[in-house]
Amino acid sequence: MRSRDGARLRRWSGDLGGAVLAFVLEVGIVIGLVVAALVVAALVIAAT
Amino acid sequence: MLIRPEREDFRIVGFALGRIFTVVAAASCLPLVWAVLGREWHPFASFLLMIGVFAFLGQLGLRYRPANERLDWSHGMVVVALTWLVVPAIGSIPFIFSGHYGGPVDAAFDAMSGLSTTGLALVQDLDHMAPSLNFWRHLLHFLGGQGIIIAALVLFAGGGGLTLYYGEARDDRILPSVRSTARFIWAVALVHLVAGVVVLGVIAHQVLGFEWKRAFFHGLMIFFAGFDTGGFAPQSTSLGYYHSAIFEFATTVIMVAGAMSFGLHYALWRGPRRSLFKNLETRMILATVAGTMLLTMIGLGVAGIYTSVPGLTRQGFFQVMSAHTGTGFATVPSTELATWGGLAFAGIVVAMALGGMASSTAGGIKALRVGLIVKSVVAQTKQLLLPEGAVVSTQYFQSGRKRLTPELAQSAMTIALLYVALFLLGAGVALGYGYGFQEAIFESVSAGASVGLSVGVTEPAMPMLMKLTYMVQMWAGRLEFVAVFALLGFIYAWVRGK
């Protein structure tokens, strides 16, 4: 019983770590896209 | 020769529908509680009526238990197609009695738009709608995006649950059992719900100056519509209401999370995490987002609509992300969006048509299919250039390394072609009513790809046939055709079969 609870706890903590990593990555993807959009916008404005 | 469905077939379908309607009746209690807490007695009565109808139909289906409950492929598809027709019809009851709609068709349009996570709306005077009704509109997004049937599977997966899962346009089973996959999908949604609502609520309170209750109400509504790539908003001016770049940024993160496949969420949560970057869909969607953003920004720059770097970045970026993820939030009014001609128009329409990832809450052709089609074209070109008899084997990565078979490529192309046909259908009807080509194609792609961006065509005064056409587009587009064809075949077999 105790080992089963331990395994569940490990899985939950693993999931929590994964979820935090997922959030960081999602934010990172959007920051990357914003930076790319800024560069494109600057080039477009400069060219037009 | 088609075999006419027997009474037992109807019992199997009815029993499965009974289970699903019972789950929907339970979910519909949430806006009822909201109405009680807000002392909104008029919506309360209409929610009670709606729950009663769902519960009655649920019990009716469960009353006639079939000898064998196991759903085969065609039963499952018919159940899915009917669920996605009946739930919006009954779910529109509170809208019909709200006084915010021109009639039952307008109310059903919004319910279908909500459930299919499209976001086109015929609601009138949205800014004065009772919060419980607004909550119901957005909850429809959540139920539809996560999948009503996924909800039912969590509670009671019986035999044949897999066919229901695939019928709701999900391609990959993440875990060995459908039930555990369904649980994982809901776990991802609930974790994002808590984080998303807290972030949006805090921004609304600290930056926008909303009082706490109002801040979290808006946070919850925008989360439902953003994560489930829906596009309804609590205010008629959509995300433009908030006039906040940080709020738009946080919403974009939520839209991106919603447009990611649950297979990728699984890889991030439980590994292997490197598969994210090897994934065909990840590479494809980054390429198409970059391409459509470039197209849109060049178009806006050339047209001189935005003359500053921050202005062009903010409007171009947000609208492309909203279109590509299939969400449909807008930070510019539909009248202004209608002036985005040329390349900017093309960029947004292509982004809407391509959509998000397979097995996500987004609509459209999907990045996986686009990737498979591109790989298939490359393989066939290689084949032409190589000596006769040479064999070209193409592989791709999606939840593991897989071989691109001719059947898979053909299936991707067929669905993509059906989407194009669906887009042309809606555009053709609008053209028939005298709308311009640009606005006809924009609105049709928006409806068929479950996006919700509008250039002003969708309004209460538009012709009835266009409302019905867009509803069919939303239904067929969300279910990715297979379940719809199965239902039509089932009806045909019932009428003409032997």
Strand order of the largest sheet of chain B: 1-2
Number of separate domains of chain A: 1
Oligomerization state: heterodimer
Mean pLDDT across the residues of chain A is: 86
Spans where pLDDT lies below 50 across 5 or more residues of chain B: none
Q: Helical region count of chain A?
A: 1
Q: Summarize the amount of helix of chain A as a percent range.
A: over 70%
Give the termini distance of chain B in whole angstroms. 8 Å
Give the C-alpha Rg of chain B. 22 Å
Determine the most extensive contact between two protein chains. Answer: A-B, 24 and 35 residues
Sheet with most strands of chain B: 2 strands, antiparallel
The rounded Rg of chain A comes to 21 Å
Shape of chain A: rod-shaped
Query: What's the order of the H and E elements of chain B?
Result: HHHHHHHHHHHHHHHHHHHEEHHHH
**Uncertain stretches of 5 or more adjacent residues of chain A:** none
Q: Whole-Å distance between the termini of chain A?
A: 70 Å
Describe the overall structure.
The complex is a heterodimer of chains A (48) and B (498). By secondary structure, chain A is mostly helical. Helices cover 96% and strands 0% of the residues of chain A. Chain A has one helix at residues 2-47. With 498 residues, chain B is mainly α. Chain B has a domain at 1-168. Chain B has 23 helices and two strands. A two-stranded antiparallel ribbon of chain B has the order 1-2. Chain B starts with 6 loop residues before the first helix and ends with a helix. At the A-B interface, helix 1 of A face helix 10, helix 12, helix 13, helix 15 and helix 16 of B.
